[in-house]
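hiii so um. not sure if this is the right channel but i have a protein structure encoded as tokens and i wanna go backwards to a sequence. like what aa goes where. can anyone help
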């Protein structure tokens, strides 16, 4: 598995900024209401966005790119004229 950066620099900076904002908000709410699990989940999501921004790799983006490539390959394989370049079709003027 080759992990290469798949998001741009500006996208990474936005992810870091918004991730830290969400993380700060959720941890402040978690201090007031420690029994609520939703704030913990939001804190984990914010931390994940910060990590994605630092390493400049998003697994969801990679999955979408892989699926898009598979769809293009499937459409190319289903093309009705593939492999028929050398076959001559008889002329029918009717």
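sure thing!! here u go:
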């Amino acid at each position: 598995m080759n992990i290469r950066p798949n998001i741009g620099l500006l996208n990474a900076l936005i992810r870091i900024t918004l991730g830290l904002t969400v993380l700060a908000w959720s941890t402040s709410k978690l201090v007031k209401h420690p029994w609520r699990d939703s704030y913990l989940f939001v804190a984990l999501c914010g931390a994940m966005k910060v990590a994605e921004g630092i390493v400049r790799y998003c697994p969801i983006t990679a999955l979408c790119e892989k699926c898009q490539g598979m769809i293009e390959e499937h459409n190319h394989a289903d093309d009705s004229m593939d492999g028929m370049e050398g076959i001559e079709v008889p002329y029918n003027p009717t």
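oh and The chain has a mean pLDDT of 87.
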